[in-house]
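Thread: "does anyone have the structure for this chain?"

Original post by V.I.:
We have the sequence but no experimental structure in hand. Need at least a predicted one for the grant figures.
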Amino acid sequence: VQLQASGGGSVQPGGSLRVSCVASGIALDLYTVGWYRQAPGKKREWVSSIDSAENNPYYSSSAKGRFIISRDNAKNSFSLQMNNLKPEDTAVYYCAAGGPDPNRLGYVLRTEGDPDYWGQGTLVTVSS
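Reply from O.Q.:
Generated one for you, tokens below.
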């Protein structure tokens, strides 16, 4: 199983970036997928997730209103569109998947221990 993250880079405050994750070895349509991030000197934190039950999106308070998570099960991938980026969004962003959830009960991704699979991370730097 492999999750491959891409799309990180450098952007000025107020700018936008889109990070994406493609999976191999698992069918993402049975998994809740999401993004975590780790800023320099801080613990990794949950940012956003989307479940497989009804494609319900969930956001941390810092992401709500600025980030949009989406999934494309046909491409076995998911993305996080990040708008109005702030310097405090600077971090390595990790994609993750939890499940499987064949009965579509709504597997939860929130804590560090929830994902079953992790991507390698992609660096997002927000700086003027």
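V.I.: this helps a lot. The CA atoms of residues 71 and 117 lie 16 Å apart.
O.Q.: and The chain has a mean pLDDT of 95.
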